[in-house]
Amino acid sequence: MKVEQIYTGCLSQGAYYIESNGEAAIIDPLRETKPYLERAERDNANIKYIFETHFHADFVSGHLTLSQQTGASIIYGPHANPTFDALLAKDNEVYQLGAVTITAIHTPGHTMESTTYLLKDENGKDYAIFSGDTLFLGDVGRPDLAQKANEITQEDLAGILFDSLRNKIMPLADDVIVYPAHGAGSACGKNMMKETVDTLGNQKIMNYALRADMTREEFIKEVTDGLAPPPLYFPMNVKMNREGYTAFDEVIAQGTTALDPEIFERIANETDAVVLDVRNQIEFIDGHIPRSIFIGLDGGFAPWVGALLADVEQIILLVVSPGREEEAITRLSRVGFDRTLGYLSGGIDSWKEAGKEVDTLESVNAETLKQQMENKVPIIDVRNDGEFSNGHIPNAVHAPLGFLNNYLNDFPKNEKFYVHCAGGYRSVIAASILKSRGIHNVVDVAGGFAAIKNAGIAVEA
Question: What per-residue confidence (pLDDT) applies to 147?
């Protein structure tokens, strides 16, 4: 028996490969299926099953494509209602995979179809659970995402999740391995550990939601307390996972169309396309297409695209470093953004050579900010709530990046203001959005809050 976690850091997402005696199963695959096909080929194994723990909200799964390529059955838990052919497992239904078995344990609460898969080894011993978004390391799945679809409150869902954990998960042995669908950084929970694998016994000690003496009411209060609004693209990803999507190869073929500057500009002018610049933030600062949005590939790219562009039907034109075109389109498709029409051939250099207009972003270091603070300049902090609460510049305006559009009227109109994040990535995203909306008196603070503290600027909690 082989069990491998295939972890994707950008999405904080874990897919899983299980193999026994030439038969393989994939749990919660990403959109691009090549890694799973290649992994099975190395073992000379046939992919027999594709197990989905639930209809994912934060990424588009590769279940349909992988099933078409391999003939493998797609399996969801009870109450799933996909529009395509799939097996809906009954609670405690067992699936044979070579010499091992996988049992579907219905664990509703995060969503009503949420299912945990229990792997038993060749001797019939409980070996591991693939817990999806039911149980994370250090946390549990948020109970607010499925309330509208099921006409139920998040408190009701939290109570259902409490029962699932107490009655289905916690009675399992302490040495059972926990393989969750997400780790720290995912918006599907709020307090996840940085580790991606643990034992159930350790989770019973470390995870606040698994306290043995916890009452149902305490659980509901703690799980629902402090939930940030979910990203706007989540319901669209659920819809795609339930109803289907464009074939991945077609998305790649369309997106990798090279466009010269004239055609690129014409398409941008004739459509409602967003010009998305995915280069490094330093390159964007030095020169970019006016009104383009920066979200760099080398940061939390896909989740920020989903949170800020929001509509998966948005047409996109890419400005991307040479050689990274397919990577960018792949990562966009993971969160359902399939309408990339092409990329700027030759990058920003070809744009400049064609005599097209170029914009820049003013950026200063923390020492310069410190000097300007003597003039009481406006400062905007775009980090999240927890970061801001742990320390911030006195009198800084807090405008979290994920909800920047809610604060547009708060930005000064006639004087320079300074924007910072933790390290310099999110502040450039914020500045690009502001400039695209005609707010050009924005100044980026390079290095973010880390540089601010190193410069000796006073902060308060």
Answer: 75
